[in-house]
């Protein structure tokens, strides 16, 4: 029972001009696919074979002898969550329940934006910026490399932004803050964040 690359929720050109079809050809078609392929090869015939992706991630989280499995499993999960965290014509101020909670916990959308942008821009090296719900409050966090809030039983991830260079280098070169601005202003899928609030 091998894992499969989940379909993108839109066409590869749908996020242009903010994220190009060329980036998605590599990022989805090569990087995300590569994590799926390596994960399947690593767990075939082991006691992890047949478990859900979340079960694999939590089973090997923190076990340095299984870091290869962890990295590929978490990257498969994170990328699927990232594709859904964006939509064509997205971005800008939130709507629905998440808008109320952002105002309650950050003071305003502008304050949230500053905090999220800071988490993305200051993540040294490769990683992810997140909006999560934990302990009855919304928080922005960042994680290194493949790390993910799925490892934290108390956190519910609402949105993520990939800040690995492969997410933006073809379109923005070294301008990570420019990529983050486009993500926030033009791509964020607030409907997805609201669904994840449950
Ligand atoms: Mn990526």
Structural commentary:
The chain is α+β, with helices and mostly antiparallel strands and 198 residues long. The chain folds into two domains: 21-84, Helix Hairpins; 96-197, Iron/manganese superoxide dismutase, C-terminal domain (minor pseudopilin epsh fold), CATH 3.55.40.20. It contains eight helices and three strands; from the N terminus they run αααααβββααα. The chain has helices at 21-43, 53-60, 67-84, 96-106, 109-122, 165-172, 176-187, 190-197, and strands at residues 127-134, 137-144, 155-162. The chain has a three-stranded antiparallel sheet with strand order 2-1-3. A hairpin with a 2-residue loop joins strand 1 and strand 2 (137-144). It is globular. The two termini are 29 Å apart. The mean pLDDT is 97. It binds manganese (II) ion. The site of manganese (II) ion has 7 residues, from helix 1 and helix 6.
CATH class group of the largest domain: Alpha Beta
CATH topology of the largest domain: minor pseudopilin epsh fold
Distance between the termini: 29 Å
Identify the overall geometry.
globular
What's the helix-strand series? HHHHHEEEHHH
Count of separate DSSP helical elements: 8
How many strands? Answer: 3
């Amino acid at each position: 029972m091998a894992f499969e690359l989940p379909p993108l929720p839109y066409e590869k050109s749908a996020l242009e001009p903010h994220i190009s079809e060329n980036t998605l050809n590599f990022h989805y078609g090569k990087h995300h696919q590569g994590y799926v392929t390596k994960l399947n090869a690593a767990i075939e015939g082991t006691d992890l074979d047949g478990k859900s992706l979340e079960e694999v991630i939590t089973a090997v989280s923190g076990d340095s002898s299984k870091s290869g499995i962890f990295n590929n499993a978490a990257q498969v999960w994170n990328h699927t969550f990232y594709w859904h965290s964006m939509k064509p014509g997205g971005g800008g101020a939130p709507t629905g329940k998440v808008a109320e909670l952002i105002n309650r916990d950050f003071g305003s959308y502008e304050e949230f934006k500053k905090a999220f942008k800071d988490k993305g821009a200051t993540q040294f090296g490769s990683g992810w910026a997140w909006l999560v719900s934990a302990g009855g409050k919304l928080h922005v966090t960042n994680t290194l490399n493949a790390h993910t809030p799925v490892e934290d039983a108390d956190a519910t991830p609402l949105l993520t932004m990939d800040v690995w260079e492969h997410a933006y280098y073809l379109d923005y070169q070294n301008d990570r803050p420019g990529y983050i601005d486009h993500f926030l202003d033009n791509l964020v899928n607030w409907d997805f964040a609201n669904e994840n609030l449950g």
